Amino acid sequence: MAVTRTSSVPDMVVLSGELWQELLKLVTAQYKVIGPVRRGSEHVFAPVKDPRDIDMAYVTTILPPKKVFHQPFQVLFSFDTEEGTLAEEESGEEKVLWGIHPCDMHAIAILDKVYGIEYPDPYYLRNRENTIIVAKNCTEVGENCFCLSMGTGPALRSGYDLLLTDLGGRYLVEVGTEKGRKLLSGLELVPAPRVVLVEKEKRLSQARQKFKKRMITQGIQELLEENFRHPIWEELMRECLACGSCTMVCPTCFCYNVVDKIDLDLKTGKRQREWDSCMLLEYAQVALGQNFRRDRDARIKQRIYHKLLYYEPQFGTLGCVGCGRCIGACVKRIDITDVVSRLAESVESDR
Ligand code: SF4
Ligand code: SF4
Is the overall model pTM greater than 0.90, yes or no? Predict the structure, then answer.
């Protein structure tokens, strides 16, 4: 049966079967879509040409979708010293980021503050403004997920253009903005009855029961403030390889370095920024070789203190959204929830 088109789009619809497939086809035909696709045993956010490549059942991705806005390598401009010219890189393409989870959406909200308030970053903001976000509530939970403890999942309440919830073979689609509504405007739709929200809450409540990992958040800031010299940091120094993987996969890490890449003609080149990591030895190195965080315990402590203590006064929220990627990426299985639990337990046993 062919789907006819109309411009009136309700705030809430349920799509299944042909209509769901039609939505995917329409969106991928009209926009550059970046969505979760399978790569071996993992998932990544990648450009999607064929809607059948989107795997809506993914639990997490190797890198977070922040890479769309804050790219691992971003050319800022090209230069030609002979001509004395600079050419700024433009990226005005409108795109759709499909199927992102609540934890990653919360992380993007943090990056919006980092890159949007005190020192507005035109590169990030341009990418952000040109992207329509289709988020997806989590009804399945990964072994390392702990967003429930951080208040960042499994349900999303704001920040999306469209929000999807898997109701089992059909999707509840909620409109968040007019940009989101536009994605649905090619379909003939009927409003979903409000009773469907009961089914949605039931699914989310079932998801909440599935979490195995938790983070102690009550009193976490006092715990960290009072234990800056705790022996656990030396223990972690012996475990940690300072490889930086934990920061590379983190959706809230935002540090970068700026480098000039000179071509072989020594006249032309480009300036680009690249993700950087506070876990790497060179990160805190300054002129004359002085390094403020030469020891690994100082670096791992910085990562954890930044996420769980220093973000709050700066951005009004903790800097960890509980995605669990750093746990999965660490070859030494250093687990941020475990570090906090061990700290809390040792303080408790000293009382
Ligand atoms: S991934 Fe693990 S080993 Fe590597 S820097 Fe992070 S905590 Fe250390
Ligand atoms: S610190 Fe780890 S769990 Fe928290 S947001 Fe970053 S990668 Fe995710």
Answer: yes
